[in-house]
Hints:
With 437 residues, the protein is mainly alpha-helical. 72% of the residues lie in helices and 5% in strands. Strands 4-1-5 form a three-stranded antiparallel beta sheet. A two-stranded antiparallel ribbon has the order 2-3. The protein is globular and about 90 Å long. The chain starts with a helix and ends in a 9-residue tail after the last helix.
Amino acid sequence: MFEVLRNAWRVKDLRRKLLYTIMMLLLFRLCTYIPTPFIDQSAIKQAVGANSGWGVIDIITGGSLSGYTFMAMGITPYINASIILQLLTVVIPRLEQLSKEGPEGRKKITQYTRYLGIILAFVQAVGICMSFGSSAIVSTFRDNLFLVYVIIGLTLTAGSALAIWMGERITENGIGNGISMLIFIGIIARLPSTVIAYVQQAAAQAREGNAALWWILPVIILAVAALVVIIVRVDLGERRIPVQYAKRISGRKVYGGQSTYIPMKPNGAGVLPLIFAMSFLAFPNIIIKMFWPHVVWYDNWLGAGTPLYAVLSVVLVLFFAYFYASISFNPEETANDIQKYGGFIQGIRPGKPTSDYLKKINRRLTLFAGLFLAGIAVLPMIISAILGNMENSAPILNLALTFSSTGLLILTSVSIEVTKQLEAQLVMNHYKGFLDK
């Protein structure tokens, strides 16, 4: 990756895109330090720490929720809006038609997603603030809570709209997918403070004669390294379906006869099913806390880390994995294109048998990807359950969850995506990057 970045820096156009992306990400991080008016920061941090449901949003927003800053909502409303629009595309003919109209249709759907995301941002902002209750408001302003909630809602909606705009600008003018890059930088921003806190706690306990945290640190490092290797192998892996094209004779020339393959990735949807499942499960928590702030049954039965929450996570990850597989790969269209150009898969008849064969392969790969992502989703819950009852486990738990499988998957997937995009553009500019190997 560093070799690719170095080669990309030598190309003027890529250097401009890299600088644009860096500047946007820095601006996004600066905005996360702008305080929200009327908010008691210490009360918010305590409330977020006490409710595991907020932790999911806090991961995606890079810790902005726990500080309830200008970017407290981040791009979570946009993600929720994307989920709603993607599902509606299947059931509403007009949206389905737009999705098939090429760039102009997708542009229109993106516009609808943006508008819906801003509406959801206001609803979520007010809902979260109301769920925290009047204790989260500075005592001086508690006499007129309605006006305070409206101002806070508008402030956080503006922050979310700015985050959406930044993400779209990065996608259009920078490197990588803008929304993924914002989540990426949010997770990266949490790492230094967590590592420093762990080291400080380990040093403090070592002075008291307990060096357990220092002994556990290499285990965590090895586990993180092993998990990164597994994620990279899955992300870069592909199933190659060999395709043979028949020879064609035109005059005195013979055309065709070459062999090629159809690359089918095990995890073609990437990290999206996992992010969508996390956001989908976090949204009911906001609504419940908005209208019933003191309810406890939801946290006991459906709160993050509960068995039912883990089951729902697995179901939703599998659902979104299959959903994205169905809209990103069309076996019938692929089979028709192969037959149209005189190709065939060895041992499979052209037409419907080819289509059925591709469907079967796609289903198997999607099941593998779904189970892999589901395992990634529930692994942090298993770690929390194991470490939660251990004495002095808070530093280990914080470090383990910061370097959680979910966070590592997002970091690794985004890094690979950016590297591939840079390599593709380097090839266009006559640079080879890693392709020299």
